[in-house]
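Support case: pyridoxal-5'-phosphate complex. Customer-provided input:
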Amino acid sequence: MKKFKINWSSKSHTYTRKEKNAVIEVMTNADPLTQGKYLKNFELDIKKYLNTKGKVFGVTSGASAIELAAATLNLKENDEIIVPAHTYCATALPFTRYKAKIKWVDIDLDTMTISIEHLKKLIGKKTKAIVAVHLYGLPSNILEIKKLISKKKIIFIEDCAQSLGAKIKDKKVGTFGDFAVFSLHAQKNLTTLGEGGILVVNKKKYQKFIPGLRHNGHRQFKNKRNYWQPAMVDVCQDIKGITPFNFPMTEAQAFLGSQLLKRVEELNKKRIQRAEQFIKSMSKYPFLKFQKNIKNYKNVYHLLPAWFDKKICRINRDDFIDIMSKKYKIKVIVQFYPLYRYDFFKKLNNNEFKLKNTDLFFDNMISFPFHEWMSEKDFNYMIKSTHKAINTLIN
Ligand SMILES: Cc1ncc(COP(=O)(O)O)c(C=O)c1O
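Agent response - structure generated as follows:
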C-alpha cells in the first residue's frame, strides 16, 4: 500500500545511549551469556518493582511464560480453562497442548477486559484456571474475580503482557494472581530488544517446578564424584508427563531490562499523558468509546483502542479507516480477532461460538498508532485528522 505518513510501528520505544552501552558491555564482558548474574539481578529488580513475595523468572517471551504456567497445572481432560475471547492468541495457545477445554469468556464493553457477568456463568466444578488479561494496559476487575473464586480451588493467572506498571490503588498487576506473565516483545511498553518475558509465580507450591521446566530439566546429579562425573548435568522430569523447555532470557536482554526498568514509569507517564490528551480531544464525539476510566485503576495505555457505538452513530469503522489511511496516510488498524473465529480454535473446540460484546467490539473497533517515539507534530496531526475524518462521516 501507499506510504503512510504515520505508520503502525512495531517498535514501541527507542533506547538511550546508556541502554545501548549496557548491551555492549554484556556482549564484551559477560561469561556466561545466559543464566548468569544479569538474569538474577533483573529478576530481583522486577520483584522489587512489582513488590511481590513471589518468584520471578526471566524468559524468552510472554508466550513462554504462559507455557510454563500451563505446564505446571497438571491439566486433565475434564478441566476447563476460562480465557477472554478478545485477546492476543498467545494467551490461549499454550493451553491447547493439553486435553483441557478452553471456555471463552466475553468482554465488558466499557473496559474491553473480562466480563464479570459472563464469567459468573462460566465458573463451575470443572474450572481449573481463569486467565484475566489486563488488555491494552488496563487492569481487569481483579478484585471481583478474586471474590468469585475465593472459596474455590481455581488457579488465577494474570496476563499482564500489555500492562507492566498498571495498578489498582497501590498494588501492581502481577501481584494478585497465582501466576502472572509479562511480555517484553517489541511493541510492549518496555522491550528487551524485540523479545522477552517474565513469569511471576506467586503461589509457593508451583515455584519449585519452574527452574527445571525453564531449562531442559537440568539439575546437578545427586552423587557427583567429580564435576564431570557421571556427567555435567542430570535431566529430570519434575512433573509427570511434561517434557521440559529451554526458555531463559539472555544476559544482554536481562541487563537491558534492568536499565529500562529505571525509566518504565517515565515511559508509561508519557503514554498516559498522550492517551488522556487524545481521549479528551475526542470528547465531542460521544459515540467514539475508549476504555473507561476506573477510580483507583491505573491504565498504562499500551495501546489506544476505541470503538464506534452504533447505537448512537452510523459510522462504519471501515469507512473511517479508509479515510484515515487513504486521505490522511495514517495507519489505523483493527486488533485481536475473536479467538473463536480462528479455524485453529474452532477445530479444537469443535464448535461455533459467538459472544455478543466480543463480536460487537471487534467489528467496530479501531486502534491508533501509539508508539512512544511519535513526534508531537505527528501526534497532533493524528488528532486533527481524526476530527476531520469523523466530521466527514457524520456530515
Ligand atoms: C495479551 C498478550 N498475551 C500474551 C502475549 C505474548 O507475549 P509474547 O509476544 O512476548 O510471546 C502478548 C503479546 O503480544 C499479548 O499481547
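The two ends are 28 Å apart (CA to CA).

Case will auto-close in a few days if no follow-up is received.
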